[in-house]
Specification:
Elements lengths: L6 E3 H8 L3 H9 L6 E3 L2 E5 H10 L1 H17 L11 E8 L3 H16 L8 E8 L4 E8 L1 H15 L1
Antiparallel strand pairs: 1-3, 2-3, 4-6, 5-6
């Protein structure tokens, strides 16, 4: 059996991949993504999530690039509000595990509910070729800044 810390909720993976949780559940139903029921809810092992993401890396990169370009050109925004920011954080590492640890810091902040959080969005993928984690975050500038400070404290 797996430790709870090793498992992702459907909602967490959906947020990481910018997908609706129903889409993640459909992948589970169609046996495209391995998952187990824990307490009546689907849980995905990190290793299985990373394998699933790795198989879709080019699609994820293209979607991420499209959303970023849309944001830069002012065509559409996935985040509402007067103040918005989008940033890409690349972290060059030796192993996928190192990159995953940083994604946990991002996810911790994305999952908290504080008054300054506002609407936010997060994407992460690990590039095996370039040996880097790429983290893209959109949202309220104060919130995004707070997340980036927390990440920089972890990696320093």
């Amino acid at each position: 059996m797996f430790e709870i810390g090793e498992l992702l909720k459907v909602e967490q993976l959906a947020q990481m991949l910018d997908m609706h949780p129903r889409t993640i559940r459909r992948y589970i139903r169609e046996n495209q993504l391995k998952a187990s029921k824990v307490g009546g809810e689907w849980r995905i092992r990190r290793e299985d999530a990373e394998m699933f993401i790795g198989g879709r890396i080019n699609e994820i990169k293209a979607d991420s690039a499209e959303e970023i370009q849309s944001f830069i050109s002012g065509q559409t925004s996935v985040i509402e509000g007067k103040n918005q920011v989008c940033t890409i954080f690349d972290y060059y590492v030796d192993t996928r595990e190192e990159a995953r640890k940083i994604s946990e810091v991002f996810m911790h902040y994305m999952n908290e509910s504080t008054p300054n959080h506002g609407q936010a969005k997060f994407q992460y993928f690990y590039d095996d070729v370039e040996k880097k984690g790429r983290y893209t975050i959109w949202g309220n500038p104060n919130f995004v800044g707070r997340v980036l400070i927390a990440v920089s404290e972890v990696i320093s």
